[in-house]
Amino acid sequence: MLFNSFEFLVFFPVVTVLFFILPHRFRWQLLLAASCFFYMFFKPEYILILAFTIVVDYYAGILIESAATSKLKKRYLMISLVANIGVLAVFKYYNFINDNITGLAGLFGWTNPIPALTMLLPVGLSFHTFQAMSYTLEIARGNYRAEKHFGIYALYVMFYPQLVAGPIERPQNMIHQFHEKKEFCYTRVVDGLRLMLWGFFKKIVIADNLATYTDSVYGNLHVQTSIAIVIAVFFFAFQIYCDFSAYTDIARGAARVMGFELVKNFNYPFRSRSVTDFWRRWHMSLTTWFNDYLFTPLVIRNRDSIKWGVVFALMVTFSLSGLWHGAAWTYVVFGVMHGIAMSYEFLTKKSRKRLSKKVPAFIYNPMCQALTFLFVCFTWIFFRAGSMQDAFYVLRRIPGVFTELSNFAVTNSKPIFDGTLNRLGLIYCGMFVILLETIHYLDNKFQIFSRLRTQRALVRWSVYYLTVLVMMFFASATAHKFIYFQF
């Protein structure tokens, strides 16, 4: 089983202390060994998959850079891309494709002779594959020189803080940092630990407690009330945000302690006023990856009809983005819905801008924010549901909320919540969501996290100890894996 939060709290300080004790020339070896151990803790033999793509991409990068012709350069790039996408296709999409072939063959009374494979999906496969692909793509575009140090390149792909769930880094940001000598800096170490503390708080207190509720509801949909289901839909939005952004904060904080800076992956996504704005704030490293390597090239190829070229590129990009998240039609539908929404916003940009000038900002902006949040919650039904049948069942049950509320108001007899979560637990979950949004509001308006750095030691340490106490007191009884580990 992969590291949980508490095991990471033992692993990280040991590696960090050794990192600062060792001379600079040995540090890359320590980090690479630690990264290998971290990955092999899940399933040791899967390190061979990483080793294969690392070797292929390392030599492909050198060959691409030294290629005498553009045709040869494209050939070496294609070898790299086929190797990486091939690994994804086999381990992540083989059974999905095969199951669909079986279903299609069954419609015609045929039998699919291709057997299914029983294998676990390597954790973080989509993340480190995309990071590796960005390396050879950047070299092919002439934006980066091939890294000649094999160990440093391997570390770029395997750096343990962000190995299994990102953020997805580019070679321009990361590789040079592994060559630079890192000195111990108290201020930087404290900043990193503070960011990690906030990440652990979001994961252990908020995400895991919300997961207790959402897992119970989605795991037993047919015995839930409509109100319980709708609450789960909204709770999942905050659960997935706290879960994923928590991992990013922990990864960025752990890297910062040692002197490495990872890219920011979230920027208050629930403040978005449009779906387009949402994807500029949510999982930003993935959004920019798809924008640079898929969306923009597709638009350029359709330059004769830019308007519909953009729509085509948006639909392809977000359909594949949905599939990137998981090998299931629910993820594809999730991506397609976002592609449709983005296309609508692109096509109606001028009319919406005219409307924004007619409606007062204090009405228009919150309305757009609320509609965007509702749309995102709606699409996450497909993201969270275990199947298309479950997703449509949730959608059919949503209107029942009004009936249940009216029945409760008239008779006061039918409980609007079942036994999925006791009332106290439900209140706690609601409090955690309110607390999260309050902290976000205060930080956005008054920069409370930045100001905490300048406060007296008594204030700072009081906040730290209070956070730890809350984590100890309100920690979920069940530890949940990070959601994005499965991607």
Describe the protein:
This protein is mainly alpha-helical. Among the domains are: 5-99 and 122-183, no CATH class; 188-262 and 387-486, no CATH class. Helix content is 74%, strand content 0%. The protein has 20 helices and no strands. The protein has helices at 5-21, 24-40, 47-66, 70-107, 125-140, 150-158, 171-179, 186-219, 226-257, 275-281, 284-301, 306-325, 329-347, 349-358, 361-384, 388-397, 400-411, 423-446, 448-452, 457-474. Helix 8 runs antiparallel to helix 18. The protein is globular and about 75 Å long. The two termini are 16 Å apart. The relative contact order is 0.10. The mean pLDDT is 89.
Q: What's the rounded overall pLDDT mean?
A: 89
Portion in strands:
under 5%
Give the SSE order as H and E letters.
HHHHHHHHHHHHHHHHHHHH
Instruction: Label the overall shape.
Output: globular
Distance between the first and last residues' Cα: 16 Å
Class from secondary-structure proportions: mainly alpha
Radius of gyration: 24 Å
Uncertain regions spanning at least 5 consecutive residues: none
Helix content: over 70%
Total beta strands: 0
- Number of H- or I-type helical stretches: 20
Biggest pleated sheet: none
